[in-house]
Amino acid sequence: MSVLWLAVAAFAIGTEAFVIAGLLPVIASDLQISLAATGQLVTAYALTYAVGSPILAVTFNNLDRRTVLTLALCCFIAGNLLAVLAGSFAVLLASRMLMAVGAGLCMPTALAVAVAIASPERRGRAIALVTSGMTIATVLGVPLGTWIGNHYGWRATFILVAGLGAIALAGLLFGLPRGLPRNTATLGQRLAVARHSAVLRALLITSFWAMGGLTVFSYLAIPLHNLRFSPTEISLALLIFGVAAAIGNMLGGTLADRIGPVPTATLGLVTMMMALILQSIALKFAPPEYARPAVLGLIFFWGIGGWAFYTGQVAHLVHIEPHASMIALSLNASAMYLGFAAGGALGGIVLTALSPTDLGWVGGSSVATALAMVLLRGRRAQLKTA
Known about the structure:
This protein is mostly helical.
């Protein structure tokens, strides 16, 4: 039951992290700033998470895990409430950074706690349950938050997320035992794992994958709006992505067990790359009546491929560092959010220098870089065993 509350916390954090993509147009209109500038709300959040997460984990090493989770969720909730009260873009930006501090401390701690309270034979399922909170957020939380934000104002979405965070906090306060094992990994130990050449390559692959996805996802509402999608239809598109992400997550786990993590990651990247590039082609050249269903279909395959890759990548990292898997996964989360930050910034540049229809091929090129690195990694492995 305790792991379930950790999943609820992940659900709240996942909702907040991804719902911003559906709110950018209404935030830009309300605060009277450009869409490219508004997109930096994604960059600031992701960069704060990427840099802050490992530092915070070391800073709070000696605190009880229950206390750490309480502090993290209080910080996350406070950030959302500050966003509700934000009267300027600067304050909203600061609120997103405060949310990222809470999320960056909460998620690695939640994974560590899930491992600590689960029996050895159930640890994999405990980790999967926590991470499923993020996946389910893309299915339910993001479309719901987008719909609420477009119908009742974007501040209402942050009220929703603050409420979800409060529910998770209450559940953990009453359902989580005290005296949980503490995370003893120092910053030096984390850096030692990162210096492992195979881990470093994996982290770079994760960053390029994340950058490609967020280049498009951060600004997805803009090309959809240009295709005359209504706010409700944009929420539907995000729901389709979320359902596909959930399917991809489960499919990736199954394939990782059957054909191996690396082939699974490769298939996921190929699917995602093609979906993003074809999205640009559909937006540029297809008549609107054909582009609308085509884009929805490509969003579906993008979600499946992207999250199948992520599951395979996590399994691969655990295989590389079986005795320091939590450190490797924490670093992978930082690499992912660093890629998210770069993707938010790159998408803003594309909007400024090119057009919304170019987001897909630019994002797809980043994913193609990740794919090339995976294939090169496999080639090197074959040469070593030959």
